[in-house]
Amino acid sequence: MPVEIDRPVAADEVVLLERATPPRYREWLIALMGGIEALPTEFRDRMPAPEDELKTLLARMLPGDELWLARSRRFEPTALIGNRGIAVVRNGDAVWYRIGMHH
């Protein structure tokens, strides 16, 4: 059985940070990991296009929906609590969320 990586969320579960596109999400995530140079070559060589990486999340979008960079409401990176990711936002509220990085 395939694992679902996109999950429905209530608006109060995540904090919206910045409107995004799939390429912007990729750029942001790589920056959080220390930049493209910090990633192993084998990983860089096999990275799918941002649109392919997010295809299941993009398929959940309806006309008028937006992608936003987001983080969990409880967020204390120094205590290894929380995560960052990307959300589908509908009418100003997050409705789907994919974790990109745990802390």
Walk me through this protein's architecture.
The protein is of the alpha+beta class. It is built from four helices and five strands; from the N terminus they run ββααααβββ. Strands 1-5-4-3-2 form a five-stranded antiparallel β-sheet. The longest helix has 11 residues, at 22-32. The two termini are 27 Å apart.
Task: Set out the fold topology.
Layout: E1 6-8, E2 14-20, H1 22-32, H2 41-45, H3 50-53, H4 55-59, E3 66-72, E4 83-90, E5 93-102
Q: How many domains is the backbone divided into?
A: 1
Mean pLDDT: 89
- The ordered H/E elements are EEHHHHEEE
The class by helix and strand makeup works out as alpha+beta
| Tally of alpha and pi helices | 4
Strand content: 25-35%
Core attributes:
103 residues; alpha+beta; five-stranded antiparallel sheet; 5 strands; 34% strand
What's this, in brief?
The chain is an alpha+beta fold and 103 residues long. It is 24% helix and 34% strand.
